Hints:
alpha/beta, 3 helices, globular
Amino acid sequence: MRNGITPDPGKIFPIPGIDTLTYVRPTVKNQNIIVGDFTYFSDIDFESHVTHFYDFNGDRLIIGKFCQIAAGVEFVMNGANHQMNAVSTFPFYIFEGWNQTAPPLSEMPLKGDIVIGNDVWIGQNSVILPGVHIGDGAIIGLNSVVGSDIPAYHIAAGNPAKMIRKRFDDELINLMLKWQWWNYNIEEIDQFIPILSAGDLDWVKERIKIILRERQSEA
């Protein structure tokens, strides 16, 4: 560990002297927001960026480990959806004085949980819409509006967000998904950093293959 300091996922401000970047997990109070270790937000008050989050919908925001969430990112939950199978979408039932009862959840266009994988980078001011699943290692370009699923290790951007390209070839993507480096302990991940930060992807492939073989022999 650098300077004898072990990374602490429970520390809210992980960069000394910087109070505008936070590890998310130790700041979250809502039990329906589940966030993995070392995922950070380039701002404070993460929960204020999770909007239309109402308990009666039963949806969750699930984010993996080591994600990088830029400033201004918003997660829009199912409470933003209005009834669409009637001739008016106006929600009379939430305002005082109108004689309408809330429609049952079966009448609402609920899309389920938002699920973000591990090591996902979400660019500044992007919006993630209800029910979206973003796979491990994906990158979302800034100012994107993500309304459909993004596969692992793909790059997507735009409004609506569209796939631009795969980050790697299929062999390396499959190796990364088997390796799942984020599930190792802190000491092991620290030793993986030369692999995780290398630009020689052929060398990276060979190193991952060695790690996977060693893990299989230990099983």
